[in-house]
Amino acid sequence: MRIKRITAIILAFLLVIPTFTQAQADESSSEKTDPQGEGSYSEKNEVVYATLNASGDQEEMYIVNNFTIDQPGKMIDYGPYTSVENLTNLNDIQFEDNEVKFSASEDQYYYQGNLEGKALPWDIQISYKLNGETVKPEELLGKDGQFEIQIDTKANDKANSVFFDNYLLQVSLPLNSEIYQNIEAENGTIASAGKNKQVTFTVMPGKEETFNVKADVTDLEMESIEIAAMPSSMSIDTPDAGEMKNDMKSLSDATAEINDGVGELKDGVTELNDGVAGLHEGSKEYKSGIHELDNGSSDLVEGSKSIDESLEQISQSLEKNSGETNLSELKELQAGLSQMAEGLKEVEGGLSELIEGYNGAYQALDQSIEAIPGPIPEEDLEKLYNSNADPKVIEQLIKNYEAAQTTKQTYTFKDGNKPSVQEFLQSVGPTLEGVVESLKTMRTQLETMADGLDKSLANMDVNESMKQLQKGLKTLSTKYKDFHSGLVKYTNGVGELSSGYDELHDGVTELTEGTDELENGVDELHDGTTELANSTNDLPDQMQDEIDEVMNEFDKSDFEPVSFVSSKNTKVNSVQFVIKTESIKKDEEEKEVQQQEKEEEKGFWDRLLDLFR
């Protein structure tokens, strides 16, 4: 190993000797031919070299200035350098008060200026984690585990913002594949570079970014992170957005159609809600009427029962005492018949009022159910499902719509020979009218008997009248028993109808509340689709404006370069930045010791063979 190092040193020395000799000759030659008149250059280029520590803090900086000479002679450049160095020849450069004076005869002239305290346009911060814990860079060397690097790039407000706004950053991390496995780099590209993996990130002009690289690491070492910055001066052609604009126009038209459909749906739901509101009012009146009818049924039955018992009692009394009836008893009978006729007349009047109230309630109920709109077309429902409406609103809308349709179908549904709800309710009114007609007939008969008995008493034809009266009362009593039996069945039916209708009315009430919520929900839905339609109405133009804005943001083809060092410098053609961080690596002596330890572990034959390898 030692022999190899000595040999390398000798060879390097032999190579340097002719170079040094040639440099001396060049120096002598340049001193003789160095022009003394005023010179000029056609353009100037600056390359900024900066080094950062492993955490991203700036350490050293120098500028390599290059001039394309069109007229040899003396020239002046500017910069707040701490020192300058001629990179073209061995001639001296004069530097005083931030002025660099030199003479150039070559086509290309280079000099280096060293800077201190000059801020880069980017504030770069680098942090490290090992196994989830933040670790200082100096503590990472040789470690194993899950490794993560985070790189933050921000604008540095201490530097000229023109570079941050117009320059593209490229951040590169060379990672040894023997050390780093399972590399992950979100928003970055990973490429193979020999035995290494090259991870690259790009930062667009004017943007602040954060990048992360994750990997499994063994015996950690890390090369320098390299950051290059150059002007994003390429011209970007505006893409042809014609087809996309046509698609956006189709989307805008479809959104408008959806809004129109939802508007029609809103009108339908409003109509539905108005119909259901009317249904509720009609149902409320019907419920009140049927309850009133049911509450009066007991009095009606009791009154009818009293009439039935009185007729039977009178009829039996006349049969037993047909030969003993005196004039005063006949007068009392005549008065009793008149009173019963008056009682039936009152019952008849009460039922007539109930019929009128019931018919009004039924008509309101029937008209309200009839006002419920028919089924909504499937295509309108499909538009609703495909809209951007709140799914909960759509679900509530469909639920209430289906409930309204179920109510309408249930109202008219007929199961075999059984009457529908509508037919049953229709029959109640005529039945009540039949009851009233029967009561009217019996009342007329009682009034006729009372009048006949009164006339018989006046004509003193008592016996014949009594026979007719007895026969009539017996017939009336028999018919009234049938009437009373039917009346009891009818009132029982009214009671069942009253009890059952409470549940139906509760359902109508829930339906009314639901359709009211539904109308509010569809109103909100229509407001949303209207806003969406308005916002997408000029979507193609908006898209074109966005494309133009993005193109203007990243097209820096009109950027005019300026000097990074001094605003006094002119004819600046380009300024580039080359930035590197310090590496995290073992020093050469440590590596050499480790290599020697490995060689000492080899056997004699292995070491002998190494001499010939």
Automatic annotation (TrEMBL):
The keyword Signal applies. Residues 29-44 have a biased composition (Basic and acidic residues). The keyword Signal applies. It comes from the Bacteria. Gene3D superfamilies: Methyl-accepting chemotaxis protein. InterPro entries: xxxLxxG_rpt. Residues 24-44 are annotated as: Disordered. Residues 1-23 form the signal peptide. Keywords: Signal. This is YhgE/Pip domain-containing protein. The lineage of its organism: Bacteria, Bacillati, Bacillota, Bacilli, Bacillales.
